[in-house]
Amino acid sequence: MKKSTFTGTGVALVTPFKRDDSIDFRALTNVVEHVIKNGVEYLVALGTTGETPVLSDKEQGEVIR
């Protein structure tokens, strides 16, 4: 059996939006800081919970920065 690259606790992130449908980077930063502070070993951004299909390539790049 092949060893998995990912071990430990991971979190699939949601992509928070403002009322005007722009990405809420302040809220995203707060979520990331919260889960890291509480012991998460890895994050999954832009997965199926990350609203990827509705984001432009530029927005996707901004989320993973």
From TrEMBL:
<dbReference type="Pfam" id="PF00701">
    <property type="entry name" value="DHDPS"/>
</dbReference>
<dbReference type="InterPro" id="IPR013785">
    <property type="entry name" value="Aldolase_TIM"/>
</dbReference>
<dbReference type="GO" id="GO:0019262">
    <property type="term" value="P:N-acetylneuraminate catabolic process"/>
</dbReference>
<protein>
    <recommendedName>
        <fullName>4-hydroxy-tetrahydrodipicolinate synthase</fullName>
    </recommendedName>
</protein>
<dbReference type="GO" id="GO:0005829">
    <property type="term" value="C:cytosol"/>
</dbReference>
<dbReference type="InterPro" id="IPR002220">
    <property type="entry name" value="DapA-like"/>
</dbReference>
<dbReference type="GO" id="GO:0008747">
    <property type="term" value="F:N-acetylneuraminate lyase activity"/>
</dbReference>
